Fold each of these.
Amino acid sequence: MSAASELNINIAHVERIAGELKLRPIQVGATAKLLADGATVPFISRYRKEATGELDEVQIQNIQERMGQLVALDDRRAAIVKSLEERKLMTDVLRAKIEKADTMNALEDVFAPFRPKRRTKATIAKEKGLEPLADFIEQNVLTNGVDLDGEAAKFVKLDAETDELKVKDAAEALAGARDIIAERISDTAEVRAALRKLFADNGTVTSKVMFGKEEDPEAQKFRDYFDWTEPVKSIPSHRMLAIRRGEKEGFLLMRIQPMEAEAIALVERLTVKGNNACSAQVKLAAQDAYKRLLSSSMETEARLESKKKADAEAVKVFADNLRELLLAAPLGQKRVLGIDPGFRTGCKVVVLDAQGQLVYNDVIYLLGDGNSLMHAKTLLLNLIERFKIQAIAIGNGTASRETEMFVKKIGVPSSIPVIMVNESGASIYSASEVARAASSSGKVVPWRLTPMPTSTRLRTSIWMGRRSIQRCQCPPACSSWSFSAGASAASSASSLPVAAVFIRL
């Protein structure tokens, strides 16, 4: 790992990510350094393969996301350690738990018992000196014949300095001890994790109309939700957002709760042991912990999580609808020859049928001796004749003008327009998860007639050809179309759809 050290990155993060993703540490370290220097995922996947050991765009993106998560986790861990040390609460056992926590939720659950709190029933009970009684109850849940009433009587305090610190009788002492135990249960990481899962799996969204708003004209748009119940794990995003909007406007009251009896039984199962007087007190404390503390806390988390999920789904629906509305096919269903220009690595050439399926791909070189140029000319003309090409799409990046001039000189029929395609977004799309998933599923890019393309350059060539006959598939970075200035393009431009001349996302 000396190489990782030279990269000035967190070695522990590198080793952990390498283990999780089954990569070599030097690959992860080099990628992390490039990302830290500002390089993008498409740039690294296309132009820094020698540094990353041929990592593809998905692996690089996974490294980027996981590194960000671990950095955020470390920052929060450091803040928690600082808080505990300043308040002199840190112990070796606690430090080990903090270091072991590998998710943000797990870390927050460890910190929960030590988080600075406002004055609660438990703190008041502690001020009365009842914490030893709470300890006694928890330590003797499995002890037979324990005299709990006698022990509680020891904490009766009638001569305290203030009424607030007085403990009038054994019953009040036990009530205070239960308050302390209830707060401890509420701060237990295992209990919170189990309830978090229960709320997600068995929680129910309930919507009721606010009292007195039934006949309000403004409330009628939410009439469907005046008395609505639905599982939180299956509620559609539009319904969740509508209910939240009604609540925000003051017409609805929304709750997310599992069955109370089920939740209490879960808490009791995790916290209550034995069957004696002390166990009975812990059971009462467990019930109080859920009803008074955990229920509202877990509901807040469930509301935030459901809102996050609904927002993500709503954005996806909006994006899909917007894509259907704005992205039109520039040329329509035409057979296209797509060329991704290049000097050193050559020009990637693809042939797409009218449905956008890849039917042929090859490479031509415009630099070199006459033989390579003759081969390029022969290949292109043969492809045009063999596949009855109706349009040629050339990317406007490096070597685009040279490629355009070459295509026009070789005798392409004037009826075939030569289109210069704006490459903005091409490398981003070709190295994206969308492109990769599309190439494997065929849902967006149905590569069915040839072997699966894995090269980002090949995906870029296909993307350019498809961009001229089908909907644009790049992210919202792409800008516009432009035809070449040649006579063939100029003569054909008037007959092409407006979208072939100009597309904005």
Note: The beta strands are 204-209, 227-231, 252-257, 336-340, 347-352, 358-364, 391-395, 418-421, 481-483.
Amino acid sequence: MKICFCISGQVRGESKSLLTLKDQISALLEFAEVTVIFSVWDKSSIKLDGAFWFSQVSRIFEPRMAELIPVSYYGDQFWGNFPKTKMRLLKESSRPVAGEIEGLFPDAIVDVEENNLDLEFDTPKFDKNSIRMLYKRWRCNEIKKKVERNYGEKFDVVVVTRPDLLLHVNLEHLQRSKFKLPKIDEVFVPSANTRDGITNDVLAYGASKAMDDYCSLFYKVAMPSWHGIHKELARHLADVGLSERQAELIQSNGIERGKLLSYEDIKGDNAFIDDLLAHCSNNSEVNPDWSSEERASFYSFVQRKQQDEGLHKDRFYSLIKGDLSLIECNDFSKDRGKYVLDSFLSNIEVLKLTSESAIIDFIPERLRGEKLDRNLKRLFQTKKFQGYVKAQYIIDCFERRDIASLCSDFDVRDVHDVTGDIADKYRDFALELENVDLDSAFKLMKIALSIRPGGPFIKKKLEEYSRKLELEI
């Protein structure tokens, strides 16, 4: 099997990801002939241009610091709020990369390009870094195509990824099963088909022709209609006839992160942050002269303090008074909205609030308001909150040993996002019942498998039960 790794884009961090890549490729050499192609900018850097939202801020700042930055700072002008910090980071992160890559990968093809391209179009794009990424992917793939022409044959598998990805090669996938070469109409990506109209862009692999089509998205970046890399990538895959499949052979273990910034790293660079922390050290009440976004930052600080002191009820009320009452959140599935939802679920789990009505009754009337009501209505409709409610119901059924309810025909597959031990609970209860009520044990183990389809022990026990009961799984 011939595999080509196409690694393109910006080298970031301290090259932990490149060292990891070297080790993973070395292990893969036992199973495949590997070619490595780099197409990178000539110097390393940290991502500071383009729009910055909560998810990007969280990659640069410590969690406690990221939570304090007002929502009004987000967007293209983020670093205008921290100009000195930006200049220092750019200076500290810049280093030549050609020699480093060639030293780690002496047999690789290394294409190094000076970072002097404009890559701007008639219609400005809000995700400029993604446009640069697509250009480098296209360029790297063109080098791959030339290598194939020189060899007179195509690679069996082509992996497209970025130099700061902590990549993992799942050798067990090759060892435990007969690996099937990808088809030309499929592409393997992380988190495949998990969100409608959204495709993960950090990693992809497939047949060589499929990856030619995948990398051709760069041709579309000049079009006036552009809705961001994840939506456009999903749309592009549909346009070129590529079906998403879950990445198993090559997987992502996240993005390499550098040292996260604390308050000490930005002290004196932003008047509001300095004022906020000075105020919080001497006052327990919010400054009424601050904007709603700045007041939300104050309550984020208070929440952390109350969490440290174990004041769970007060912490919940600070979340209510902060983001949920001051910031209109239209999407709790990503960015700052996801952070607020996760904080909300963490709070209500500690307070043992297990339903919408219980939560509403717990909030004092003096804290209620129209914006809070709108935010709560949207939050209650999220899949993650619904999964939490369902999980609490299931846990209650286990505590009451309500076998009939646990065996009822309802979908429990989404609850593992909130409570990862639900599958274990079903599995263990089935094992407990297998010698006294095999029919119920079969139903419980079948539900455990629906939550954790890859569980080998669960599969084995379910097959055993089905043989004894003469039932099909």
Note: The longest strand covers residues 33-41.
